[in-house]
Write a structure and sequence with these properties.
About 45% of the residues lie in helices and about 15% in strands. It is of the alpha/beta class. An 8-stranded mixed sheet has the order 1-2-4-3-5-6-7-8, with helices on both faces. Helix 1 runs parallel beside helix 8.
């Protein structure tokens, strides 16, 4: 018995230490950190926008050809809020030839004189306009013979490090859309494509522009949510906190009170161009049913007019998840059909 006594004491001490560490960890994780989050607008913005997640690293935006892109102009626009935005204009495949001299004037002339559709792309949080899944989508557009204008919101990529807010990035997006539509000047259809957080940005931007009579040909929402409150509640990282009785007060409500709302289910009422929603059933970042809630909100506002809003659900067996709808084999056909239908409507 004397021989085993020290071992028993050691085991007790180890268990006691583990218990203390566990309690301390629980208090920090589920007590201190949520309280810091609740009262820190800066932390809330960091978590929502993830602009500090800078990938790919060491990107030279002035040399998009290094990333495998062809026929690209890198340039910068200064918004009416004096924010510099990094932008790429990617040419349709048919315009990439020996006769095209890649000057700034030539690129802008191609927008004004071409009848080919122009897609304005608004990315989600984290990364920048050079992120790999975004490059895949640009190439798909290019192969469809469309122009692509993609950009980084303030504090993303090589755009100015300005204060991040919903209002700020929506204003950036409005400026880009207006710039594109001004260059095109009615000679070609203009489509806006938003992915993930970009769906909230694009829907809000088009609702505001619509009030000014600035209406693109169509809006495509890839992996959208209905509003940020529901998305935060359903995000995988939120699941470890949802058991807290004060979860909504600590984690969810601060976004709303600080103006980080992205209420697409309200803004879609004022989007008057046709809308197509694309959502994969196996999306574990933004669940399919949040996209369906947005679709239903659109139908309700527009009196079940399916010519104005439609939804494509992509089977989970394709394993496309949140980021890779660009790899859906029939996506080119879906996009072409949507574009062709709206071009006929305008003609």
């Amino acid at each position: 018995m004397l021989y085993w006594l020290p071992k028993k004491r050691l085991i007790k001490r180890c268990l006691l230490w583990i218990m203390k560490v566990s309690i301390l960890t629980y208090l920090i994780l589920f007590g201190i950190l949520p309280i810091i989050f609740h009262y820190s607008y800066t932390v809330q913005k960091k978590i929502l926008f993830l602009n500090f997640v800078y990938w790919p690293l060491n990107t030279d935006f002035s040399k998009p050809e290094i990333l495998g892109l062809k026929g690209v102009r890198n340039f910068y626009l200064h918004t009416n809020e004096h924010v510099k935005l990094g932008v790429w204009h990617i040419l349709p495949q048919s315009l990439i030839n020996d006769s095209f001299v890649p000057t700034n004037e030539a690129f802008e002339t191609s927008l004004h004189n071409s009848s080919k559709p122009v897609f304005v792309y608004m990315h989600g949080n984290s990364g920048n306009r050079a992120s790999s899944h975004r490059l895949e989508l640009y190439k798909l557009f290019q192969n469809l013979d469309y122009h692509i204008v993609c950009f980084d919101y303030r504090s993303y990529g090589d755009s100015d490090k300005a204060d991040l807010s919903e209002t700020g990035i929506v204003n950036d997006s409005k400026y880009i859309i207006e710039w594109v539509m001004g260059k095109v000047n009615g000679t070609a259809p203009v489509f806006v494509w938003g992915h993930s957080l970009g769906t909230g940005v694009s829907t809000h931007a088009l609702a505001l522009l619509g009030a000014k009579g600035i209406i693109p040909t169509g809006l495509i929402l890839e992996s959208p949510f209905n509003n940020i409150i529901d998305e935060i509640s359903e995000h995988p990282f939120a699941q470890i906190f949802k058991h807290l009785p004060w979860f909504n007060w600590l984690i969810v409500e601060p976004f709303y009170h600080n103006g980080l709302r992205f209420e697409s289910d309200k803004h879609i009422k004022n989007v008057t161009c046709p809308v197509m929603i694309l959502h994969a059933e196996d999306d574990n970042i933004i669940p399919l049913y949040l996209g369906e809630k947005l679709y239903q909100a659109g139908l309700n506002y527009h009196k079940n007019e399916t010519n104005l809003i439609e939804m494509v659900r992509i089977d989970a067996l394709y394993e496309l998840g949140h980021k890779y709808i660009c790899r859906y084999k029939i996506l080119p056909n879906i996009i072409e059909s949507f574009v062709t239908k709206l071009q006929k409507t305008q003609d």
